[in-house]
Amino acid sequence: MAKLPKKPRSCFVVGPIGEDDSDDRIHADWLLEEIIQPVFDEDFSEYRVERADRITIPGRIDAQVISALLDADLVIADLTTLNPNAFYEIGIRHMTQKPVIHMHLEGQRIPFDIASFRSIKFSRARPRDLKAARMALKDAIEMAVRPDHKVDNPVTFARGKVDFAEDATPRERVLQEQIDDLRFRVNSLVHERHELEDINLDRRNTPGIPNLRLLVKTKKEHAGQVERTVDKAVRGLLQDYLIGALDDGSVKIDMPNDTRAKNSLNKLLSRIRAMPYVEGVEVVKE
Description:
There is one protein chain. The chain is of the alpha/beta class and 286 residues long. The chain contains 8 helices and 9 strands. The protein has helices at 23-43, 61-71, 84-96, 127-144, 154-167, 170-197, 223-235, 259-273, and strands at 9-14, 47-51, 74-78, 100-105, 119-122, 211-217, 242-245, 251-256, 280-285. A hairpin with a 5-residue loop joins strand 7 and strand 8 (251-256). The longest helix is centred in the middle third of the chain and has 28 residues, at 170-197. The model is unreliable at 197-209 (pLDDT under 50).
């Protein structure tokens, strides 16, 4: 009896797609046709690569996308443009605890919550940039499909914390809190680096546009908690800002002195003053 052909493994690509001939579609086609597909054709030919707009099977596209996210052996997620649909799809994939590779166009700022997780930066400016991106993607795929690969994303991290907390001793819980604080500080540094790289922040160095600095006063032992709480409040109002703890325990927030910041300042000050452990807020113009 003849053997049935072996079912190909699957790789599903998510990211901004857009309408035909839109900037998003042109970007998506560049990524798929000049970076992703050549890597699979050359080194992983046992995989079938699909994207939502190229699924040929009749049916509801939303159900097909979710099925692909749940069932695919590998997902490659393009974070470029911070597309809401793409992030919804990435969240579904993270829940499966299956391999996912993040990618983003050079110059794109990565959201704070996933900034500490590895993402392949790529560019389309020069031919050698495409070659470099293909090499980086090949290395990432080789690691992701290994049998001993351990999936690491915000969901698996949170689940691990819940499992640990259920059985942890008081001493272990204290250690976990300290680890959480260190992780937050690392994420803050990554977030700050992406902020500095963002071309939109060039105006901070433009003569005639002073910056605003908020100094949040608190005790040193509460600085980490206050920094996290303040960061969440600022994120809800502003896009361009830098936050960090100073040696004396106070927390600084730097922001451009533009119309958006001015319009949000009073609301932000009210929120910060109402926070636990905050002893005062000072506004400084630079």
